Predict the structure.
Amino acid sequence: MSQTELRIIAPTAIVGYGFKESSLERALKKDPHLIACDGGSTDPGPNYLGMGKAFVGRDAAKRDLALMLRAAVDRGIPMIVGTSGGAGGDAHLQWTREIVEEISLENNLHFKMALIHCETSKEYLSKKLAQGRIKPLWPLPPLRQETIDRSSTIVGMAGVEPYIEALGGGAQVVLCGRSDDAAIFAALPIKEEFDPALGWVAGKLLECGAACAVPRQKYGSEGITVTIREDHILVEPNHPGLVCTPLSVSTFFLHENETPIYHTEPSGVLDLTGLHCQAVDERTVKVTGARFLPRDRYDIRLEGVELVGYRCICVSYTRDPVLVQCIDSYLDNVRSLVVSRVDGMGVPAKDYKLVFRVIGKNAVMGEREPVKEVLAHELGVIMEAVAPTQELANEILGLARQAGKNMHYQGKLCDEGCLTYPYSPSDIPAGPVYEFNILHAVAPDSPLEMFPIEYVTV
């Protein structure tokens, strides 16, 4: 491997989002040293971590992984996937492992694989809590033991160190559980003793595929190639229809960060106050000026979820101009009737949740919506019930759906219902509901202690 230049391909933003084969083939002509990709995110919410499910289809993930894996093995270079399976728990890691092994069998591929496990035990966290080594991340309060006890799945977000350990252990394929997004790509350049700031900047740009290129998303979720040199990096999109500009690259550092200047990582802070982006040609940008500032406390972000109930939903809509104008008071009356009936069943209001989401009126911003007048000629109403059991959620939702259809309102011009339901059956059981209850940072004794590595010969 060259010590003066390192080339890394991210084929797409997340495994399963897809990319053109021709884009990857074009990038492979640059003779890369690493093919890597993010495999997940918390953006789709807590249910995927709680249920151990991926948020992309298996066939879509297999298609992307097959192209990446064959390219890496054929060239004798590493392939890395971080936050495997969407949420990075052990179930997600195993799901991705099975797909990789299936591809290997079908294509007669042979390699050493490392599996970095990121699930964290309650016993470990209880010990760290007692030692005062866990701090909250906004907006959550300090962690309590009862919160740990209620959690169903907890993961730690791996930094670069487990990847470096796995690559140093001879793994050609590395599948990691929950991961710091940038660490997936920063690990190899840091291992090869490039300036850590360049590794982290490269990771930041690679983690979202071609999101730092324009016109963003015109061709789907494409990828980029980053070249790391002694004192700068070069970033170029894989798809010929995309370009990177100084503006598109520099503004990307606003993405998912509290500040575009300081980006906190497990081992330190990426300082971008001196960042400079310069066009090299019509589609490539040179980036210089970043610094990485190590800090004394090594922190691992924790993500935990707990089961809060089961959900049932119903989709309805109305075009009655009278109901459109009085929808808030109407739904208040529906709620009151449902509460009284459920109370008669012996279930107090504190034990369940009933939500009405009015599409076309405050559905996005709620009470903070500045447009107060209803301008729509039709509205959609999503009814949602969450209760301790699926059966109870279904029953509460059924009461709400019935009341929503038949309640009277001032000015109503017919005896029948003026909310209608496009689906039959109208009530849709949605299964378990999880919420994030742990978003905290823990200080381990070493960067590796939370991330056991399993080596497999494939």
Summary: DSSP finds 13 helices and 19 strands in the chain. The chain has a mean pLDDT of 95.
